[in-house]
Amino acid sequence: MAKPVWYPAATSKELGRAPLGIAFLGQRLVLFRGKGGVPSALLDRCPHRGVSLSLGEVRDGDLACPYHGWRFGTDGRCTLIPSASNAEPKPKCAATAFPCVEAQGTVWVSSTQERPEQAPSWPRVGEPGYRDVELLNRIECPQLQVVQNFVDCAHTGILHRGLFRGEPSKEIRAHVELTPEGVASENFGETNPTGLLVRLLQRGNGGVRHTDTFRAPHTVEVNYWWGERHLVTTSISTPETATTTRVYTRIAMKFGLLDPLLLIAIRPFTARIFQQDKRILEDQARQLARYPDAPRASSAADLPCLWVEEAHRAATEPDAAPVSPRVKDVQYKL
User: Which domains, and CATH codes, for the chain?
Assistant: First the structure.
């Protein structure tokens, strides 16, 4: 049985007073705020006649079906049937409920009907000295290729040339670790990227520390440090279906007095980078669908992506072999 995992299902701003129907891990769910504004998640199907509960309304903290008005509580249990006589017992039915919490401006839903052990959180968000910005993107591409993209350093100087890096020119060493939890990579010998975005972030010609971490099945955390200054971009990819993915991103930074200016500047630059990635990923998805059995070549720079695929498969496919931990250093140009 798959281990329950918290996935972002909506931003807090998206979930207002009205029910919100969403695509989530190949299902349709409805999110709604019950008493006190606390969010809940149910399968978007009324157990009475199968109508979408997301077309209904919230009444007295319960979700009312738009067809016959049957109401369901935050735990999915039927609380009211308007047409039932006082003597009629309630039918033993319920809408399927999923554990749901709201934290740090995000509505999180469990991947199963079991509650994950640890509470969900965004790295560095809310910590002293850090400020953050939120982005949301929808990509017509499977989750695997999306998370691979976020650990793929080799593409940044080509696809994002001028915004983030220049073309590959300097030999670097990447230390890559594969564990049952995911993949961790750190680059050594990397100098400051030369793109416009980084010129806004760096001061002077000091060194940079850069790490990429994939936490199976859905999270990629990218860290850059310039001394005490720190930028961390965390992207969590929630599959809507097998071929579409919603990417929730938080960028947290600690640059002191520069924070307000950087928060304004970093959003459009990061949005532009995401749009470039989106165009390529959606094309890649179409090509993989056209040529599912075509062989794919790899170079040393692809090791993080290859190990991400292995860790992702172990976390998402019941019959997949468990991960065998490994460590390897590779050299390539960045």
Answer: 6-110 (2.102.10.10), 131-333 (3.90.380.10)
